[in-house]
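Session log. Operator J.P. requested a structure for one protein chain; no other inputs attached. Running the standard single-chain path with token output.
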Amino acid sequence: MNKREFIQLLDKYLAGTASPEEEALLLRIYESYQDHQEWDSHELEAIHSLEDKLFEKIELAIRQPEGSPVPEIRVARRLRLLPLRRILTAACVILLVGIGLIFLIRPRHTEPVVAKAPAPNKDFSPGGNNAYLILSDGQKLALNQAKIGVLARQGGHEVIKKDDGQIVYSRNASAVPAESSISLNKIVVPVGGQYKVMLPDGTNVWLNAASSLEYPIEFTGDQRQVRLTGEAYFEVAKNRVLPFVVNVNGKMDVKVLGTHFNIMAYGDEDRISTTLLEGSVKVVDRANPANEKVLTPGQQADWSDHEKIKVMAAEGEEAIAWKEGQFLFVNEDIHSIMRKLARWYDIEVVYSRSMKNKSFDGSISRNRNISEVLKLMELTKSVHFVFDERKIVVMP
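Structure written below.
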């Protein structure tokens, strides 16, 4: 079932004209969609059990000879319906193959079919909370190994690691303040890592793998400026007196007063993308300040060298799927997908000479081992993967 067919089915259900068989199909899609914020602990246990069964069915399909029947997945108990916005998100990423096997990834413009895909002889675990904090005096702290509590004291401030692992800053009124304008801290997230930090002004920042953020331990002057490389999601604390400015790779500025947005600026990508979810931001080319754009929620600005900033409509869920613990691919080419997998699983990707570009739609948890992601893609019969030490070779 493709996205258009799913929307048609949803319309029929909402209009009350869906048949019992169509309602059952829609329910199976609902029940296969994850959202931890929508389900309580008892329901989550059922979801995790269902997820395991889905992958058992996929593995069964992989192991069985071609042409053998694969039993349809049936879910015993009903779960409450998700809000419409979440349902539409699920519609974009959850697909069914004709034999009834729930399938999460398929190639664009290709009929999904079940293939016999050999299991890789190696595997790689997903990344996790892992980062380094570089203090103003150059001291380097491994945050995943640091104990809960005060990590450092600098310039009248304390750096604190909370129970959930988040780093926050607290002003120590009894300490003698230092020259905070030149006291910078830097969070460095390696390949295979992610981390969340609360900046001294209360702004929350989620950093994706292979990223870094530099910021002062106290914001002074006429603006709050930070420097980003890689990818991060910002929830900026409102302050109309001090605008918040993100210097991206020294090439572009994103200026805001208080808003939620995502910036993707990896060195191996051909563009810097800013996606706005809430509020308003201005994107400015540092080399050519006249090249600027103001975004409204639901828009994305793409910047690349020697080109004007391009603004387009964008889905916020796709831009921040990584923050929510998901890979979400919407008509995404194989090279872009493999770059994301390489950063998260800390592996190298190479391509066979005959490999042509292909696009995929799909969603899967970032908590899965890489073999499970690759198996789902191999089920399309349009791509194949071979493990070679810490390399993955992509072949047709």
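Operator note: The chain has seven helices and 27 strands.
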